[in-house]
From TrEMBL, chain A:
It comes from the Bacteria. The keyword Lyase does not apply. Pfam families: Cu-oxidase_3 (PF07732). The keyword Ligase does not apply. Keywords: Copper, Metal-binding, Oxidoreductase. This is Multicopper oxidase domain-containing protein.
From TrEMBL, chain B:
Residues 116-213, 242-383 form the Plastocyanin-like domain. PANTHER family: FI03373P-RELATED, MULTI-COPPER OXIDASE. Keywords: Copper, Metal-binding, Oxidoreductase. It comes from Micromonospora halotolerans. Coiled coil: none annotated. InterPro entries: Cu-oxidase-like_N, Cu-oxidase_2nd, Cu-oxidase_fam, Cupredoxin, TAT_signal. It holds the Pfam family Cu-oxidase. Gene3D superfamilies: Cupredoxins - blue copper proteins. The lineage of its organism: Bacteria, Bacillati, Actinomycetota, Actinomycetes, Micromonosporales. This is Multicopper oxidase domain-containing protein. Residues 393-419 are annotated as: Disordered. It comes from the Bacteria. The keyword Ligase does not apply.
Length: 433, 419
């Protein structure tokens, strides 16, 4: 029998674990399209700005194992996905959205922030039933096989919701929502027409925030009545996912119906090598405000509801935030960088306090850590207690970003979940592939 | 309440050199040409050692007191396990700076809410040592604790206090966090270990950073300013920090009685300024180390606002509840100058100060608000969400305090915040 000291055993036992993690992180899933970025906003575009969406039902997976029946918008005749695809157009173009309905009741799309929306060539109109009761905020596609064609001219550059306008209290909660991104004409590298809204096009993120009351979804699935006075959200989502699924890549194959991740993946700000900020587009498809708190960096709020933060004379009225409070139906766009302010370095500039030994710290809690057991960006991972999974690849940093209405940062009450994601900061040289 | 121990470790010459550099910063506020360069990098030359401050906090549990006479919430409040004079189980921080190891250990079970009020000067090298004393009522819980400096822009994960992304402090151990604040303004700190629980249980406090401009620059005289504004518009005479929180009595009871809570059922029962509900908000500051402080011994921070007519009064508002609140002051115009530890100015320097009589503040947000003390008299400051003016569902209470204005020259200069 081999005689190995305890530390060596520990190190050896970590090898297959680390290999497995790296394999999972590096090997693309079979469904991952080469055109899809692993993280970040994924646009659905069309040469003629004509989109086909199908309202349909399917299932979304929650991190605690629950599976929720949802309704949402699928691209074309494609499979159910939550949320609907992100439609990207340029300000001023004519946009066509054909809605096909496969749901057992009428449905529709409203385009908040867009004006003069036509439905089948006529101004989109609210609908009422025979008794005169409002049934839809806008023109519907009939149940099961109906369709309706909406057209409008894309408004000012910015971020907008699109969502059901029919029995909206129920249907939007069921998941009938998506994002519309309008880019400034001639300047796709900007959030809006202002030069100071420029961002790194490889660092564009969308946080479509929502919530789920599973009782309502079960009632819809079982075709039972639901009393909205009993409404109680239990899951809180970014792009239809809850932490930790939010940090999984786009199109992770274990989340077949929830294609969009929310991991921010950046490098430290550098005036020469990495001068441009990331852009984060927040949208609230839920029923309460989501006070979103990014750690480790503030964010500059540059636009709200598709309008730049500016004065009548073009003055810059953007402002710095460590808490972005997004009200229901609102959108907020922010620019974000992360500055390596102190440049801690084990040789030249070590941290001025000791890192406690393993027995003097708690790693986790829980089975995983995103800390390399090394305080230095790019440092070699240190030793971990047995059984703790190390998610750190190359000494990158992770900061958390989450709703600070902290009951929303849970999966049905369980901590470190819900409306939460991570900001990953790679060493300046990047991580080896 | 505490101003941390400060060890001057800077020569007069070095200070002048540093202040000259910072003066240059102060006259060029918020004006980067780059979209993101809203704050120039620190200009203190590295050769000049920063002043230092160190502080020792202990994390533990304890018992506090909500207002007497509020209707009971059976069986959750008053908690039958509570010792005499107390009625609510909490977790919290204690300032144990300078105490011996034995004295620190003796603070187990003596948590306070809100946590000690902390103020530091910009560009100070700050060491905050956290000792985890464990929980006296729940020895079965082996929870770690951390300090998360909420809103701090320059913390690496090790010092950010998120246990899943760095480390937390086990019972009986300590860890020293290091911070070097480059940005003035009002922040918060709280434990981030199982934060939905530990924050609700009371591990929340305000920390603020005084601007380098306080030393004076070419454009503004030495004084008290909220930010490096360059023009003196954030000058103030007196400052009062108000931490807004909610208390969900049922969750506190469940923690004391070894039961679990579904946090998505969140439904607060009390609404506090600095860990106290009206009328306790009006009681003077207490000494958490002295039994003579009485019923509010472990809620030592007053929310009573006092000023002489004509003085400029700064309110540092922070919300670590889970709900939005709207602070209003009857008969007083409020000037909002800062949000989230940032001066409200665009990147081109455009002013965004706002005059208002309501300041809405979401969970995790901070606001810096200045008002000019009006004619002598008593003015009310309260949460316009009137449902938050209740104690355990009974009327009159909650997030309400008074602004008491005296004739000019009555009150001596303020020596510390909330005094």
């Amino acid at each position: 029998m081999l005689r190995l000291d305890r530390g060596r055993w520990k190190r050896l036992s970590a090898v297959p674990l680390v290999a497995a993690i790296v394999a999972v992180l590096v090997v693309p899933g079979p469904s991952q399209s080469t055109a899809s970025p692993p993280a970040g906003l994924e646009c659905l575009t069309a040469g003629d700005n004509a989109f086909e969406l199908t309202a349909t039902g399917g299932y979304a997976a929650m991190p605690d194992g629950n599976t929720i029946y949802m309704w949402s918008y699928a691209a074309g005749g494609g499979a159910f996905q939550l949320p609907g695809p992100t439609l990207c157009v340029t300000s001023g173009v004519k946009v066509t959205v054909v809605l096909h309905n496969s749901l057992p009741e009428p449905t529709s799309i409203t385009f908040p922030g867009q004006v003069q929306v036509l439905a089948d060539g006529q101004p989109a109109q609210p609908e009422t039933d025979a008794a005169g009761t409002l049934t839809s905020l806008t023109t519907t596609a009939a149940a099961n096989t109906g369709s309706v064609t909406y057209t409008f001219t894309a408004g000012p550059p910015g971020t907008y919701l699109y969502q059901s306008g029919t029995d909206a209290q129920k249907q939007v909660q069921m998941g009938l929502y998506g994002a519309l991104v309008v880019r400034p004409a001639g300047h796709p590298e900007r959030e809006n027409d202002r030069a100071d809204s420029a961002f790194d096009r490889d660092r564009e993120y969308l946080y479509l925030l929502g919530e789920i009351d599973p009782d309502l979804h079960l009632a819809v699935e079982r075709k039972r009545a639901y009393d909205f006075t009993r409404y109680k959200a239990r899951y809180f989502t970014i792009n239809g996912r809850s932490m930790p699924d939010t940090i999984a890549p786009n199109h992770a194959d274990w989340l077949p119906a929830q294609p969009y991740g929310a991991l921010i993946h950046i490098r430290p700000y550098d005036p020469v090598g990495n001068p441009k900020p990331a852009l984060i587009r927040y949208l609230n498809a839920g029923s309460v405000s989501y006070p979103f708190h990014p750690h480790g960096s503030d964010e500059q709020l540059i636009a709200r509801d598709g309008r730049p933060a500016q004065g009548p004379g073009g003055q810059d009225l953007s402002y710095s935030n460590f808490l972005i409070d997004v009200a229901p139906g609102q959108t907020v766009d922010t620019l974000m960088i992360w500055k390596d302010a102190e440049h801690w370095d084990p040789q030249g500039n070590p941290i001025p306090v000791p890192l406690p030994s393993l027995q003097d710290q708690i790693v986790g809690p829980g089975p995983e850590t995103w800390f390399a057991e090394n305080p230095y960006l790019g440092g070699e991972p240190g030793e971990l207690p047995p059984g703790v999974v190390q998610n750190n690849q190359c000494g990158e940093y992770y900061h958390v970003a989450h709703s600070h209405a902290l009951e929303q940062a849970t999966n049905y009450g369980a901590s470190f979940g819900g409306m939460m994601t991570l900001i990953r900061i790679d060493p300046p040289a990047g991580c080896p592939a | 309440m505490t101003d941390p121990v400060r060890q001057p470790s800077i020569s007069r010459r070095a200070l002048l050199a540093g202040v000259t550099g910072l003066g240059t910063w102060a006259v060029l506020p918020e004006r980067g040409s780059d979209a993101q360069l809203r704050r120039p990098a620190a200009v203190l030359p590295r050769a000049v050692p920063n002043p230092t401050a160190s502080l020792h906090l202990a994390a533990t549990d304890g018992w506090v007191s909500m207002p007497q006479g509020a209707p009971p919430i059976s069986p959750f409040w008053p908690d039958p396990l509570a010792p005499a004079g107390a009625d609510l189980y909490v977790f919290g921080f204690r300032d144990v700076t300078g105490l011996s190891a034995t004295e620190v250990t003796a603070q187990r079970g003596k948590a306070q809410i809100s946590a000690p009020l902390l103020g530091f000067d910009q560009e100070t090298d700050i060491r905050i040592t956290l000792t985890n004393l464990g929980l006296s009522v729940r020895p079965d819980l082996t929870d770690g604790h951390t300090v998360h400096w909420h809103g701090f822009r320059n913390a690496i994960p090790l010092f950010d206090g998120v246990p899943e992304l760095s480390i937390s402090v086990p019972i009986g151990r300590d860890f020293t966090y290091f911070y070097r604040p480059h940005d003035a303004g009002t922040y918060m700190y709280h434990c981030h270990f199982e934060d939905v629980e530990h924050v609700q249980m009371g591990m929340t406090g305000i920390v603020y950073v005084r601007p380098a401009q306080n030393a004076g620059t070419a454009d503004v005289p030495p004084g008290k300013y909220v930010y490096n504004d360059g023009d003196g518009t954030t000058r103030y005479d007196r400052e009062f920090a108000l931490m807004l929180t909610e208390v969900w009595a049922e969750a506190h009871y469940r923690d004391a009685h070894i039961q679990t809570t579904d946090w998505t059922d969140y439904k607060p029962s009390f609404f506090a300024f600095n860990g106290r509900c009206h009328p306790d908000t009006l009681a003077p500051n207490g000494d958490p180390m002295s039994a003579a402080a009485g019923r509010l011994r472990y809620q030592p921070i007053s929310s009573l606002i006092t000023a002489n007519a004509g003085e400029r009064v700064l309110l540092r508002l922070a919300n670590l509840g889970y709900q939005n609140h709207t602070v209003t002051a009857d008969g007083v115009d409020l000037l909002v100058v800062g949000k989230d530890a940032a001066l409200l100015r665009g990147r081109d320097g455009s002013a965004e100060y706002q005059v208002t009589n309501t300041v809405q503040i979401g969970p995790g947000e901070s606001r810096d608000v200045i008002f000019t003390a009006p004619d002598p008299g008593t003015y009310l400051l309260y949460d316009r969400d009137l449902m938050s003016l209740a104690n355990a569902g009974g009327g009159r209470g909650g997030q309400l305090t008074e602004i008491r204005v005296s004739p000019p020259g009555t009150l001596p200069a303020q020596t510390r915040a909330n005094a």
